[in-house]
Amino acid sequence: MESSNVVFDDTRLKSNDHEEEVIFSDGSPLEEVVVSPNVGTSNVNNNDTQPIDRVPLLDSKEPAPWVRKLHDKEDIIGEVNEGVRTRRQLANLISYTCYTSQIEPKKVEEALNDEFWVLAMQEELNQFERNEVWTLVPWPKTTNVIGTKWIFRNKSDEDGNIVRNKARLVAQGYSQIEGIDFEETFAPVARLESIRLLLSISCVHKFKLHQMDIKSAFLNGFLQEEVFVEQPKGFVDAHHPNHVYRLKKALYRLKQAPRAWYERLTQFLVDNNYSRGSVDKTLFIKRDNDELFIAQIYVDDIVFGSTNNTKVQQFVDVMSHEFEMSLVGELSYFLGLQIRQLDDGIFISQAKYAKNLVKKFGLEKAKHCDTPMSTTLKLSKDASGKSVDQTLYRGMIGSLLYLTASRPDISFSVGVCARYQFDPKESHLSSVKRVIRFVNGTSNYGIWYSFDTNPSLVGYSDADWAGNCDDRKSTIGRLLLSRQQLGVLVLQEAKLNFLVHGRGQYIAAGSGCTQLMWMKQMLVDYGFNQGTLTLTLFYDNMSAINISKNPVQHSRTKHIDIRHHFIRELVENKCIVLEHVGTNDQLADLFTKPLDAT
């Protein structure tokens, strides 16, 4: 009987150099079996050996199915760059999918046919009962009765997954009558500059910021007026179908609802020994020796932090005892800003918003641009150009304007394009699309707040001369830094035409001083002694600096309005000093001209 030599090759099988590695589902590699036709020899290195078959060596009789280790990108479901999801994340996703409706109804009849939305509507009414918002009373025939309306929204997380169905019962406030249903309506909210300044202060003291969301905040505001509303659709009392509700507390979309909530929250915090800021009325501070607690209010969202974690927990306990909370945790997502608090600083960006913006306008596959606008392009009204859809153009501008909250590099380009929203042309639309293509390639850009800071408050101000090709008005840009962190950035078009460049620079410097004084007072509220500190405003125009120091009147200054000489008084009182800075070091330069590739 003849025998044959068998050679086992331990290397994994590859059909050719360009194909991917193949493994089995049990993790075992595919081994190669080579059968030699030579008989009676034990030389395994015989060159005459020829492979006649390849079979996998498995313990079981049935071959295991093959599993592709590498897959084509087109075959992968979902976003490749998101990485691998953990089991907990997948469990949460399944929970959201099973217990929430993925449809957002437009009419109340559609919602009443969906069990998840019925539960959401019932939860809203239960919230009314817990807060004692209203009382069912007979219809007063001589009184104005306001209608009600259901609003349905799907709440998503940072990854875009629907996590909650929110049904909101609102009042039809447009039917209110001034003097009968409402009086005062104004309520302050935190400015974006205040939020940036709060981030800067947290970097100086090196403490974490937290956030809380008060559930149904407006339902906690007490009303001073007598207001009646209709019963909500789908939930009319069967025994009293003709009755109406008399409101004890505010309802969403009532004209006075924001003011009622702000007054309630302010009074509660003041009663608990939290002092209100002298400049920013949405800032609340509590000091205890060297310990500092800060809270910034934006309607029902509160950002807070302290140098002592005990103060943070005390604030959470006090608020939770008085109001119902829907979110308490470390600050990570606020007003569309993605905030990452790291060991050496804070990074804010709008990466998710930027990607959605690009996708919304169908430019995700367009070629990226290195700069948001050409340095040689001068946009004008282009009266002979072809008009484009105003709604589309204004939608692009509005979306980009919100993106400038964390992207000062596109502020000038967006500001220039925003001038032509009344009658946009193809040339204007092309420029806006270029900005979006630039954003597409730089969606992860943002602002970095470092813990390594210098305790100083400085400002940079700049202005071009007759940069607007249509009316020859100038563009003014200001950038204020607190502790070397970005506090305020302003881009605006001057209301006047400047005959002399120095005059425009002087007026721009005076405008920058007003912002600098505002930040100085804000820092006083935060506990930083700025009383005797002289602030510095950097400028790259010696003519403007000399005019501020020397109260001389000549042909270049006699036409300047007296209100613009505010800067002279500040310089004389040594509140502010103007220093010259080279053009290459002028940080406000990016607000007055397009960025170049370098």
From TrEMBL:
Domain Reverse transcriptase Ty1/copia-type per the UniProt entry, residue ranges: 131-374
Classification via InterPro entries: DNA/RNA_pol_sf (IPR043502), RVT_2 (IPR013103)
Pfam families given in the database record: RVT_2
Leader sequence segment: none
Designated name of the protein: Reverse transcriptase Ty1/copia-type domain-containing protein
